[in-house]
Write a structure and sequence with these properties.
Length: about 170
Amino acid sequence: MIITIGGLAGTGTTTAAKVLSEKLDVPFVSAGSIFRDMAKERGMSVLEFSEFAENNTDIDKEIDKRQADLAESSENLIIEGRLSAYFVKADLRIWLFTPFDVRAERIADRESKTVDLAKHEIEIREKSEALRYLDIHNIDITDLDIYDLVINTGSFAPDEIAEIILTTLKVI
């Protein structure tokens, strides 16, 4: 079974993927880990590579290709990434969303910054990413039609989210 989990920053995609991975005893990989691997392959820090990737659409395309290749060569895998559902042949495509204020609080806590700063950075990042996704892939990140399951993670704890997904898996 191949499962993709996507969502904007602060929605808990990595946490959900980890918890689900443990419950199903299925490995998971994140687009972020692929990004970090690519930085290491090029002898760059993540920050250096991030700056390099901003002006190089081939990096986004390579991340997408690597996710697809991993899924194709795996029988059971959870792939976590904002656009994974678009590039991976998955049995279940999940999108996590959370109210903006909750996401900002989570990110502020995680990154030890003020909520106001987190909100400002989220807005800038998401506008930039939305334009990049549209430009590179012709993907409107706000169009959720591709997803089989959409969960508001602001309403549930990580274990509860995993249970919702496990219940869904029983009916597909």
